[in-house]
Structure to design on (96 residues):
């Protein structure tokens, strides 16, 4: 019933998938939320590894390994993550 209601709401709102893409699903909201949360943590300079258990609990998972299925390597997430590794060596105490 929830799936049917969601599809009806999408139709009423005029939300159509982009050409060659699938229709939005309730699960896609979870994927988007998880990826956006990781991007924000990276941009804030937070310890993403330490925060993963919190994201897992929020999504209702027992272990972070279950949450990794919700993560998609978007260009924005990859950029945010790679920027964390672009710090000059002298800011890391002279080590790489």
């Amino acid at each position: 019933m929830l799936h049917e209601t969601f599809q009806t709401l999408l139709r009423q709102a005029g939300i159509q998938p982009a050409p060659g893409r699938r229709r939005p699903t309730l699960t896609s909201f979870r994927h988007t939320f998880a990826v956006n949360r990781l991007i924000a943590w990276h941009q804030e300079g937070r310890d993403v590894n330490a925060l993963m258990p919190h994201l897992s609990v929020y999504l209702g998972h027992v272990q972070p390994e279950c949450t990794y299925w919700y993560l998609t390597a978007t260009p924005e997430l990859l950029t945010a993550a790679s920027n964390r590794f672009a710090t000059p060596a002298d800011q890391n105490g002279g080590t790489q």
